[in-house]
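A reminder before we start the practical. When you read a complex entry, don't treat the lines as separate problems. The point of joint prediction is that each chain is placed relative to the others, so the output describes one connected object in space. Small molecules and nucleic acid strands, if listed, are placed in the same frame. In the example below there are two entries. Take a minute to note the order of the lines before looking further.
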Amino acid sequence: MRHTYHEVEFCATKVALGLLSGKWKPIIFFHLASGALRFTELWRAIPRVSKKVLLEQLRQLEDASIVERTVHNGFPPEVTYQLTPKGAELAPILQRLDQWALTHIKGTVQIS
Amino acid sequence: MRHTYHEVEFCATKVALGLLSGKWKPIIFFHLASGALRFTELWRAIPRVSKKVLLEQLRQLEDASIVERTVHNGFPPEVTYQLTPKGAELAPILQRLDQWALTHIKGTVQIS
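Here is the predicted structure of the whole assembly.
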């Protein structure tokens, strides 16, 4: 049994899964899927995450070009985060994954 | 901003991503998406994985009810692995994730 192009495909999925494997990344992703949020809005929306950790996770999502950060000039200046077009294309896929999980994962699901 | 049912949804996705977060699990998953395979077939299909590690990853996928193991009586007895119905429902979702990754992830993608 020979595998050539398949290996690349499997790896692509692995890389995609890896991009979202941070502790808070799926939660950040879904909050931003509804639109841009200010940093403090996002922080308040996610229970039990420190600002430091949230910033780190956001930076990793920025590095992966899934999230973009915009500084709005003004007084005081405002920083918002939103999905990039590439990130937005992930939204319907993750919604289907979410549906699958809600259907099949039994018992109490906790943030851990 | 209050979050109630949303938290459960975000977590469901996180759990789903976690189920596939093992080093070889996406690769195992895609090989089995085409049909049942004997253990040695699966092992040969995946480059650079030890039998011990492959068995561990398969066991975790069995625990998650994504993969099932069948012992076929015969001489010698044969063990095959295949996706459960729950696992099979994941296939089209992961295929879309794969397409997204192939479109957007640039540069060399390596198994690591």
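Discuss with your neighbour: Strands of chain B lie at 37-38, 67-72, 78-83. What might explain this?
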